[in-house]
Every structure is written in structure tokens, then in C-alpha cells.
Amino acid sequence: MLAQHTVRSYDEELKYLAQKIAEMGGHGERMVDQSIKALVEADNKLAKQVVLDDQFMDDTQREIDEKAIMIIAKRQPMASDLREIIGAIRISADLERVGDMGKNIAKRNSAVSETAHPLRVFRGLENLAQLGLTQLKDVLDIYASRSVDQLDRVRNRDEEIDQVYTSLFRELLTYMMEDPRNISSCTHLLFCAKNIERIGDHATNIAETIYYIETGRHMTLDRPKEDKSHRVVLEEPK
Amino acid sequence: MKTKTVETPMKTELPAKAAMPAIKIKARNVDVHYGEKQAIKDLSIDIPARSVSSFIGPSGCGKSTFLRSINRMNDTIPTCKVKGLIEIDGKDIYDKDLDVVQLRANVGMVFQKPNPFPKSIFENVAYGPRIHGLAKGKTDLEEMVVSALKKAGLFEEVKDRISQPGTSLSGGQQQRLCIARAIAVNPEIILMDEPCSALDPIATARIEELIDELRENFTIVIVTHSMQQAARVSQRTAMFHLGILVEEGPTELMFSNPTQKRTQDYITGRFG
Fold first, then answer.
1. How far is residue A199's CA from residue A221's CA, in Å, rounded to a whole number?
2. A149: pLDDT strictly greater than 50
3. pLDDT in tens, B96-132
4. Of A211-220, A229-238, B34-43, where does mean pLDDT reach its minimum?
5. CA–CA separation, A83 vs B213, rounded Å?
6. Cα(A197)–Cα(A208) distance, integer angstroms
7. Hey, which residues does A222 pair with through a beta bridge?
8. Of A15, B160, B170, B243, which residue is 20 to 30 A from A7 by alpha carbon distance?
9. Which residues are B87's β-sheet partners?
10. What does the alpha-carbon distance between residue B99 and residue B93 come to, in Å, rounded to a whole number?
């Protein structure tokens, strides 16, 4: 644990950044959770609220950027402080994107609820969302506790999200082939699934940033990647 | 209809790391005492040639004392005793047969406050080559002065008033005049003891720019209280505290990820 700065207000400025990141994290988690809930329950009102909620994420990210730039200009931070500030800028950008993903899922709500779709498709999506949200929650907990030894576990779990996403991709493709009336809703759901898969990627980015903040080193590049959806094609009937 | 997966392999490669240049100054187990008080304790360091090394640390940490040991400026202080080995190009500079005047010509020094002689700009620079008998005649001496002033980035500003007193220049110009005076005798090493602490930001920027140009031909060691300056101008940084070399390494690492807690505390403003 580092001692306090000679200038106490410097510590307060850094603490403020961390607090704002925590607020963005909690808000982002709630947005994603509610966007999926709105989708499954065909709750358009909730979906609209999620779309409005994204404003907070955008505003807070800008606030973090501005505060971070002011700290850099005023304090000329070095080493761990500099990493902390640059880390806050990076993490807030990732969280802002998480908010965008939640908002995007919410925006597709009416397009899915008003068109034909097989009900069982939501099970896979809920499962995927649960994994993504656990990932996000864990990584935000680590940001607060700084227990970097947990990071590998979080990062490696992204593999599971990728696997579930790839199988959901196949599943949706199959529904579309089975009944062309599903195409409209399933295409939207495919984007929803992709959004959640991206949330997993942002959680991984945040894990890597936390590791850099704490150690000054980068995590190894070779993490498991199991998203094979870019290689999935339909087989020609024999 | 079924789905299948097609293969598309990918590869990533990392760049190789650069090697460290040749060693110019080598110190081993150096102790420096001022009477009873020990100012440097068991210091060992390698300073690479043709690059800038900076010494940082809180006041009284021994960085200036060690800097002054490199050209034996400490010999002028009667109570000062230097033990251990300091070599330049493999030669012990505390060898009793060594010519100290020659050493100080080879290892120039620039101080915190610009200290031009109370002579003309020309004479300030010509003084060194003249006493060391480096010039073959008047024309040769003039060429040497012009060349040193050019290297110090001062010639264009003073060429029309070269016979005016050195003290008539601005603080930043006086400091560059002192650098010109130091390089006029063709040294290999230039020691700088807080060369910008009495200068405004623009004059500081010009000196930093000059340091960056000079490192092509000189080995430069700079003591500075400005961490940002050390980060800007030097390739290697050494952190001193209470007479001990706490840590030494590539500047980019020292300011982004130092290994020692004391360095970390000092550069992030948590000291004391």
C-alpha cells in the first residue's frame, strides 16, 4: 500500500476518479441486466428507460476524461499515479461502450417483441448475459480490491462467453433456416448476443488495464479465444 | 441444414529489445566523506557513453557530491575524502599520477547558476583552448570559438556582439555560453549540476534541446530536481537517497514502473 501524497488534495483527486469508475461500473451492469430483462419480458417501458440511462455513462466518461487531463496538467503524475490516471481513462472508455451495448440491446426491444420468434431462444441469451454480467461484476470488484491475482481467472473465463456465443450464433442461424419468419427477430437477437460478447471483451480489457495499473507490466498476449462465430457457415445440403 | 466451422490461422510476433551502449564511466564501491559525515555509501554504477544519464533524489542525497567526484572537483574541499574506484574509459581517475587539469578538460562542468568570466563572450570561450594550448594560431582559435558557440546553439544570437561582456547576456544565454566554454576544450564528458534551475521555461527548453543534440558527441551526466526534466532529457536515471544509490535503470522504466518503493515514493510526490 502506498503512503499518502505530500499534497493531500492530489490523493482526493485520484480517489474521485476511482469512485466515478465504480459508479459507471454499477450503472453499466444495471443497464445490461435490465435490457435483457426488458427483452425477455417484452417490457418496452423498461427498455426505453435503459436507453435514457445511457446519458449518465456518456456524461461520466467525459467528466473522468476532463478530470484526468486536469490532474495530469496540474500534478505531472509519475509511475503508479500516472498509470492510475491513464487506467481510469481507459476503463471509463470501456464502461461507456458497455453502456452503449446495453442501450443497443434495449433499442432492439420492440423489433424483437413485435415479430415472430421462438421463445426458447431467450434461454441461450439469458445464459450468455449472465456470464457477461458476472465477468463485468468480478472485474469491477477487482478494480476496487486490487487483488490482481484474481485477474487471470476473469480473463480466462472470457473463453466460456465466446463458446456460448458461438453456439448461440449457430442456434440462431438454425432458427432462421427452419422458419424464415424468424429471420427478422433472430437477426436482432444475433446483434444482442454480439453485444453481450463484446461486453465480455470490454471486461477483459478492463482486467488487462487493472493489471497494468497495479504492476506496470502488460498481461501476456496469448489468452484463450474461443469466439469461432466468424468461421461458422451453413453446410450445403447433400 | 447444418452449420460447420472453417479454419483461418493467425500469428503475432514481438519486437526484439535494444542492447546497452559502451560504458564510459564506471564506479565501484565509492565512499565519499566530508570529515566525519559520510555523503556517499558504497556506490557502484555504470554510465554509458554518448547518452544522457540523470541523477535524481531529495536534497542532501549525495547526487551532486558524486557528480563532483567524477572530475575531482571535490579535491578543492580539504575535508572531502573519496574512497573506492572511479574509472573513465577504464582509467582510474584517482590515480596519483593522473593530471587533474587534463581530467577536468576532458570532463567539463556546468553549474546551477550561469558563471561566465567577467570577460567578453569571445574570451569566455577562448580561455580554455588558450590555457590548454589547443589552438595553433589566432585563426585557429577563432574557428574553435565559433565552432563551440555553434555547438552550444548560441552563435547566431551573439555573432554581432562577440566582444561584449559575457555577463551582458540573458540567463539562458549565459548558461549556453558556459556550455560553449566547457565544450571548447573538446571534452568527452559534460557534467551538469541543475543547469536549468535558475532559468525560465523557454530558456530551459533551449538547454534541454541542446542537451539532446550534444548527446550525439558527448557523455552527459545531469543532476536535476525536476523529475519531468530527467524524464525528458535522459536515457538512464539514477535515484539517490541518504548517500545510497537506490536504483538505476532506463529512464522510461524508472518513471513508469520503478522497482524500489523509495523511488516510487519520491517520483510520485509521497516522500517524507
1. 19
2. yes
3. 999 999 999 999 999 999 999 999 999 999 999 999 9
4. A229-238
5. 30
6. 17
7. none
8. B243
9. B26, B92
10. 9
CB contact under 8 A, A78 and B4: no
Using the beta-carbon criterion (under 8 Å), do A78 and B267 form an inter-chain contact?
A: yes
Q: B257: helix, coil or strand?
A: coil
3-state SS class at A127? helix
Q: Does B258 touch chain A (CB under 8 A)?
A: yes
- Pick among A11, A71, A76, A80 to test the B interface (most B CBs inside 10 A): A80
β partners of residue B26: B46, B87
Measured CA to CA, the distance from residue A22 to residue A92 in angstroms comes to 10
pLDDT digits (tens, 9 = 90+) for A45-73: 999 999 999 999 999 999 999 999 999 99
Indicate whether B25 pLDDT > 80: yes
* Phi and psi, residue A4, nearest 5°: -75, 155
Edge-first strand order for the sheet with B91-92 is: B37-48, B23-34, B80-88, B91-92
Terminal-to-terminal C-alpha distance of chain B: 72
Cell of B266: 519520491
Kindly state the average pLDDT of the residues A154-161: 86
The answer to whether B100 touches B72, Cβ cutoff 8 Å, is: yes
Bridge-partner residues for B245, per DSSP? B240
Among B5, B263, B264, the residue with its CB nearest the CB of A232 is B5
- Asked whether residue B265 carries a pLDDT value surpassing 80, the answer given is yes
> Is this complex's ipTM strictly greater than 0.90?
no
Residues of A in contact with B258 (CB under 8 A): 79
- The predicted model gives A217-229 an average pLDDT of 77
Who among A5, A170, A231 is closest to B270 (CB)? Answer: A5
Query: Whole-prediction pTM value?
Result: 0.81
Q: Do the beta carbons of residue A74 and residue A7 sit within 8 Å?
A: no
Residue reference for cell 427483452: A39
Q: Is the pLDDT of residue B83 over 70?
A: yes
User: How confident is the model at residue B199, as a pLDDT?
Assistant: 87
Rg from Cα positions in chain A:
20
Q: What gap in Å lies between CA B199 and CA B55, rounded to an integer?
A: 19
Q: Give tens-digit pLDDT for B229-257.
A: 999 999 999 999 999 999 999 999 999 88
Count Cβ atoms within 10 A of the Cβ of residue A172 and give its class: 0-12 exposed, 13-18 middle, 19 or more buried. Answer: buried
When CB atoms are compared, the residue of B256, B269, B272 closest to A216 is B256
